[in-house]
Design brief:
Distance between the termini of chain B: 61 Å
Strand content of chain B: 15-25%
Number of strands of chain B: 28
Largest sheet of chain B: 7 strands, mixed
Shape of chain A: globular
CATH class of the largest domain in chain B: Alpha Beta
Low-confidence stretches of chain A: none
Structural class of chain A: alpha+beta
Radius of gyration of chain B: 28 Å
Order of helices and strands of chain A: EEHEEEHHHH
Number of helices of chain A: 5
Strand order of the largest sheet of chain B: 3-5-1-12-9-10-11
CATH topology of the largest domain in chain A: Ubiquitin-like (UB roll)
Low-confidence stretches of chain B: none
Shape of chain B: globular
Oligomer: heterodimer
Mean pLDDT of chain B: 97
CATH architecture of the largest domain in chain A: Roll
Largest sheet of chain A: 5 strands, mixed
Number of domains of chain B: 3
CATH superfamily of the largest domain in chain A: Beta-grasp domain
Mean pLDDT of chain A: 97
Largest interface: A-B, 57 and 57 residues
Distance between the termini of chain A: 47 Å
Helix content of chain A: 25-40%
Number of strands of chain A: 5
């Protein structure tokens, strides 16, 4: 067992873990934060995307130990209390989810996308940037709409 | 229309928990003291098992047990079942081989379940599995659909000597032969409908639990129909009687058919929980899902369409071999028979149809219902034939379809179905207009100038949904009735709980069902809770598949609401001192006709429970009603999808640049949700046509067992769709709903292939039409053009 400590959604956490523990296992099993999902375990589907020091990473192929000292944000840490993050609100408003399983990863990817590419995102950019996230329900149509709208809303909120 | 009533695009009530990470899926559930299961799966497609030595694994620290098929047999655990009896042409019943949850003496596909290790942690279970030695004698395997029944092919089950489960027929052979005899033109196609992996993003999972005090079991599982799971686990597999077995399907991350079935892993988890006296959890990884979730499609078909000199269709003849995999999954036998051949009339007047279907065993994963289930396969046959026939006789494909459309209803087809309503020309006209079909030749010329090949393809589909009248499906061999249940509990404060036997795994029932109740009772949508997915709460139900939750599930709610209103009017009569016949109910208020006396719904609910204004002997206190709704017919959603695309002959890369969908789903409860269903269905249909295909090598090794090998459609592969609707309300149910869940997946594949073949100018474009397939197909077109 090895000690690890990090900040998750603003809270300091530390634990003794098996060194082979993946970040997603640490979140789901150790911290019981089950909003981050595992859809494929080969870093193809993106259901497990979280932010580590602001970067979108696939927590199913990240060792928890490599995040020692890092700041991790998960889907549970996005809203401010009852106030949804603009990207979360946009997914609801645009029916950007059906079964909800890919949704946390989609939203985390989308938020990081805005941080890299800005709040004015065209359809082509959004579709290309979603290459690491799979959805089987929506056909992506409304996810693309939601991300464009969420990005705009993030811009408005930042003004 | 109110802002939250029927017809409004209400934002979904369930979304908040999903967008904040508060959903509760099966793998999110952890029970105190739970152990973890790891399944040892066959690495061989076909082998006898001489012995299993698990002694080293059992000695490992943290290992609780290793179970094999012998342990299940000793406990008299029944095998997995197929719930739909199909009879062959000679009247003999289908030949179903035994399907034990853990192999007994033989394995029949790669991924077949050999043994299970149960340990303190998943990691220990997985490590221990490495120490289990299985002594196999490898046998020759057969994976090919077309040759599975050939002489000399390896035989999977002794009960089916030529691997043929059934050779079934539907329709009138003599009449069809006669139609072909007088035909002016016959179009013939050889069609392969590619095998698909359903791939809901949430992998299957199960947590089994046994309570010693009550001697009862609980199974949390990823199911589309928890009551059917309980029925099968209880009545056939023998885990426990139904009153001692609770099945909970919490949030479920997509199903598309694959979570209808009762699988080995879920069965073992609940059974083993009592054996090891601890809860037992298993969560599939994606490769396990590819190996052992039931696959879809996999047909090989020879199809012929006969026409007279005017282009009028005279007859249709189809011979299909359907790959059922190594064992018969829960509803597998019905998919290529009664969910397939009765749809072969499409939207057309076809006087004579004859279909033969052979279901065959192969050394591959079981094949069962996947989005559309039989109807996409039928539509692909019909719509490819229509397109090719039109080309062969020099007709515009749209006009040729229009000439043969059914226009009078009800319309009895020669293959069971009686279409109850629709307006096919209307949908076609609208789609042609939205797609700017009239100017396609200009756009083709423009593409040609750039060295690109442009094509357009039409698909005019019909499906049979709302599955289905119980007596009708019973007469066709179904082992269950296909009604749905609803219970309405009005609380004393006027809030309402609706218990439904339907199950939502992405469809948004918590919103649409609440819209119906809110609309009818005149109460806020926030005061309505939809409860589903727990056999301890909902007494019985048949679950969600076949686009049935609207047409059947909501009709059951309507029936229960009728009873609620009738009872409430009696209570209102007492409270308002009037005859119940004089009570009107409108906008959430009960009033006495022609007076200003009224009481609102919440106050009335309280009166029903305090029962001060009436005698409890004369009228029962309380306000709670239940209903079972058995449909009177299938429903028949239909529509036209048009795909327009461009192929680069240098690379084989295809770009779909316009998708038009005009669907008739009858009345819509929530258009936003309906559109979402159509989007998702189209994406899966495009996936089948362009990207997806399960591939086994000749030895039965699965080559497409991860997302690196099986191409799921990604956002960058797809486009935004143009969606419109027409509406002929369904005459067969009280809401006029037809169902929308499968339409896209049914309509899309032939639309894509018709467009691809239009672009390359010949019909030799198999699915999935990968860049390699299209490059070859396009080069043929280029060479032909050069030769001319």
């Amino acid at each position: 067992m090895t000690a690890v400590s990090m900040t998750v959604n603003g809270q300091h956490v530390s634990a003794e873990i098996d060194p082979r523990t993946l970040l997603v296992q640490f979140l789901r099993e150790e911290l019981r934060m089950t909003g981050t999902h595992v859809g494929c375990d080969t870093s193809q589907c993106g259901c497990c995307v979280v932010h580590v020091n602001g970067d979108a990473v696939k927590s199913c192929t990240t060792l928890a130990l490599t995040c020692d000292g890092a700041s991790v944000t998960t889907i549970e840490g996005l809203a401010k209390g009852d106030e949804l993050h603009p990207m979360q609100a946009a997914f609801r408003e645009n029916h950007g989810l059906q079964c909800g399983f890919c949704t946390p990863g989609m939203i985390m990817t989308a938020v990081e996308l805005v941080s890299r590419k800005g709040t004015n995102l065209d359809e082509h950019t959004i579709r290309e940037e979603l290459e690491g996230n799979l959805c089987r329900c929506t056909g992506y149509h409304n996810i693309v709409k939601a991300i464009a709208a969420g990005a705009q809303a993030m811009g408005t909120a930042a003004e | 229309m109110s802002a939250t009533g029927i017809g409004a695009s209400v934002r979904r009530k369930e979304d908040f928990r999903f967008i904040t990470g508060k959903g509760r899926y099966t793998d999110d559930i952890n029970r105190h003291g739970q152990a973890h299961a790891f399944f040892i799966r066959s690495p061989h497609a076909h082998a006898t098992i001489n012995g299993i030595d698990a002694s080293a694994a059992r000695k490992m620290k943290g290992v609780l047990a290793v179970f094999t098929g012998d342990d299940l047999a000793a406990d008299k655990v029944g095998g997995l079942i197929c719930g739909w009896m199909i009879h062959s042409k000679d009247g003999s019943p289908m030949k179903a081989g035994a399907h034990p949850a853990l192999a007994q003496g033989k394995v029949r596909y790669v991924g077949d379940h050999v043994a299970v290790v149960i340990a303190d942690t998943y990691a220990i279970a997985r490590e221990a599995a490495e120490k289990v030695v299985v002594d196999y004698d490898v046998l020759p395997a057969i994976v090919d659909t077309a040759t599975a029944a050939a002489t000399g092919a390896p035989v999977l089950h002794d009960v089916a000597p030529n691997n043929t489960v059934y050779d079934w027929k539907l329709g009138d052979k003599d009449a069809t032969d006669a139609a072909f005899a007088r035909a002016k033109h016959v179009t013939t196609l050889e069609i392969v409908n590619n095998r698909l992996a359903p791939n809901p993003m949430e992998p299957r999972a199960a947590v089994g639990e046994y309570d010693e005090g009550s001697e009862s079991f609980t199974l949390y599982t990823t199911s589309q129909n928890p009551h059917v799971a309980r029925l099968v686990l209880s009545a056939f597999i023998g885990i426990a009687p139904e009153h001692k077995l609770r099945v909970v399907a919490p949030d479920v991350g997509g199903g598309f058919g694959s979570k209808i079935f009762i699988y080995a892993e879920e069965t073992i988890c609940v059974w083993a929980a009592k054996k090891v006296r601890r809860p037992v959890k298993w969560t599939s990884d994606r490769t396990e899902a590819f190996l052992s979730d039931a696959h879809g499609r996999d047909h090989v078909t020879h199809a012929q369409l006969a026409m007279d000199e005017t282009g009028k269709i005279l007859g249709l003849r189809v011979k299909t071999t359907a790959n059922l995999g190594a064992y018969l999954s829960t509803f597998s036998s019905a998919v290529p028979t009664y969910l397939y051949a009765p749809l072969l009339s499409g939207q057309y007047n076809i006087p004579a149809i004859y279909a033969e279907v052979d279901g065959v065993y192969t050394n591959t994963a079981p094949v069962d219902a996947y989005r559309g289930a039989g109807r996409p396969e039928a539509t692909f046959v019909v719509e490819r034939l229509m397109e090719v026939a039109a080309r062969e006789i020099g007709r515009d494909p749209a006009d040729f379809r229009r000439q043969n459309f059914v226009t009078q209803f009800p319309h009895q087809t020669p293959v069971i179905m009686c279409y109850d309503g629709g307006d096919y020309p209307q949908a076609l006209d609208k789609a042609l207009e939205l797609a700017d079909y009239a100017n396609i030749s200009k756009r083709k010329a423009e593409s040609a100038r750039k060295g690109l090949l442009r094509g357009i393809g039409i698909s005019a589909y019909i499906e049979a949904c709302g599955i289905a009248p119980s007596a009708a499906v019973g007469s066709l061999g179904a082992g269950v009735g296909l009604w749905e249940s609803a219970e309405i509990r009005v609380n004393p404060v006027g809030t309402v709980e609706v218990l439904t036997g339907s199950h939502a795994h992405g469809q948004g029932h918590e919103t649409t069902f609440a819209q119906l109740v809110s609309d009818r009772l005149g109460i806020s949508i926030d005061n309505v809770a939809i409860i589903h997915g727990d056999t301890d709460k909902v007494q019985m139900g048949m679950g969600t598949y076949g686009s049935r939750s609207g047409a059947v599930g909501m009709s059951a709610i309507v029936k229960a609401l009728d009873k609620i209103e009738a009872k409430a009017k009696k209570v209102a009569g007492h409270v308002l001192e009037a005859s119940p016949d004089d009570i009107e109910f409108k906008d959430g208020k009960f009033s006495v006709k022609g007076t200003d006396k009224e009481i609102d719904f919440a106050s009335l609910a309280l009166q029903a429970y305090i029962a001060h204004k009436f005698s409890g002997q004369e009228l029962e206190p309380g306000l709670k009603e239940g209903a079972f709704y058995d449909p009177t017919n299938f429903t028949f959603p239909a529509g036209v999808h048009i795909c327009e695309l461009e192929i680069d002959p240098q690379t084989g890369i295809v770009t779909i640049d316009k998708w038009t969908a005009v669907d008739d789903f009858g009345n819509l409860i929530n258009p936003m949700i309906v559109e979402g269903q159509v989007h998702g269905g189209i994406a899966q249909g495009i996936g089948q046509a362009l990207f997806e295909g399960v591939v086994y090598n000749k030895d039965g090794q699965l080559l497409t067992a991860s997302y690196m090998d099986y191409q799921m459609p990604r956002a960058g592969d797809l486009l935004s769709y143009d969606i419109a609707v027409t509406n002929t309300p369904c005459p067969s149910n009280p809401l006029g709903i037809k169902g929308c869940g499968e339409a896209g997946a049914i309509a899309a594949p032939p639309a894509v292939v018709n467009a691809l073949t239009d672009a390359v100018g010949h019909e030799d474009v198999p699915m999935p039409a990968t860049p390699q397939v299209l490059w070859r197909a396009a080069q043929r077109a280029v060479l032909k053009a050069a030769a001319e």
